[in-house]
Amino acid sequence: MSDDMLVKVQGLQKHFPVRSGLFGRVTAQVRAVDGVDFEIHRGETLGLVGESGSGKSTTGRAVLRLIEPSAGSVHFDGVDILSLDSGALRRTRARMQMIFQDPYSSLDPQATVADSVGEPLRVHRGLRGRARDDAVVELLETVGLQARHLRRFPYEFSGGQRQRICIARALAPSPDLLVCDEPVSALDVSIQAQVINLLEDIQQEFGIALLFISHDLAVVRHISDRIAVMYLGRIVEIGEAEQVYTQPRHPYTEALLSAIPVPDPVVQRRRDRIVLDGDIPSPLAPPPGCRFHTRCPYAMDVCREVDPPMTQMAGGGVACHLHDRGPRLDGRSVLEIEPRSRAAEPVHALKIPEIRSGGMK
Ligand SMILES: Nc1ncnc2c1ncn2[C@@H]1O[C@H](COP(=O)(O)OP(=O)(O)OP(=O)(O)O)[C@@H](O)[C@H]1O
Fold first, then answer.
1. CA 54 to ligand 1: nearest atom
2. 268 Cα to the center of ligand 1, angstroms
3. Whole-model pTM?
4. Rounded Cα–Cα distance for residues 300 and 61 (Å)
5. Mean pLDDT of successive 10-residue stretches along the chain, which has 361 residues
6. What is the distance, to the nearest Å, from the Cα of residue 189 to the centroid of all Cα atoms in its chain?
7. What is the residue with the minimal CA distance to atom 12 of ligand 1?
8. 16 lines ligand 1 (CB under 6 A)
């Protein structure tokens, strides 16, 4: 792992068993995360986007080992966190904190701010009494609250203020990584930008890396250095934020982007709205071949058969799709690329029709 690499995730899977019948036999598996690779560098913000159900939260939790991954590896600062015993995991986890969507349920309603934010200071830094309160006040000021809030309870705060308290608590053990799972989705629109700006300021001031999970590509673009797009348990595209936003390689990214209103009418016209058919398929039985083919406006016969590999694209970014819609770094054609997996039919026997025109709606 290079020196500036903080997190390296390889082949991550999380399958949830579905049990039924009198004896609770496992009859199926929800493949919530089904082979995910990415890296986060020190001080970097990686945005993770995708529709509801694409596996973003499960990925975030599995990275922190809040849930046990089914397969794959997660290295944090060079250490394989899946190999740690509970004591070592607890110590490492202090450096990896999580902020959840709902600040209402994230805080103990019976605990004052001093206690909520002070507890990790006691556990991880051994602070007590006055020293602990002073450190809490410092953290409160960092997140835009004041010393007068110290003895108050969660019900006395607005949603935005509660999320600030959660952020202060997450900062208490001086983490290197913050996993933010839809941190502004439960807040009023007017407050969302303030909390995103706060996270950005914190990230810059303390050099903390962020894994920023959101279903909203517009939110993620603002804060991210790089963006990973997730669909049905897999990352389908990953690259520099600006490049993913202005030059999407995967039809799914294109569809997500087309749903974002753009103030410039010329850009909006270039970005005709792509409405995807139907809902995201069930992770109990992902479609064979390319998982996106059932909703893809450009689907070809081959897409039903071949699970496309991630391909390094010229101009930056990595995307998984079979269409020749951007130059590949290796200059190879669709059929030369080794598929990740393939169904019964060999690829060369498949006829690739023209990309359907008029597929956009
Ligand atoms: N504990 C669980 N048991 C069974 N299935 C689960 C469990 N947790 C998540 N899932 C399923 O895994 C899939 C991915 O869920 P996940 O919450 O990770 O997606 P998401 O992209 O974060 O969406 P959302 O924003 O709605 O949470 C979904 O189909 C979900 O129903």
1. 21
2. 32
3. 0.86
4. 35
5. 87 94 88 96 96 95 96 96 93 93 87 95 91 95 95 94 96 96 90 92 94 91 93 94 88 86 58 73 92 86 83 72 53 46 33 30 28
6. 21
7. 32
8. yes
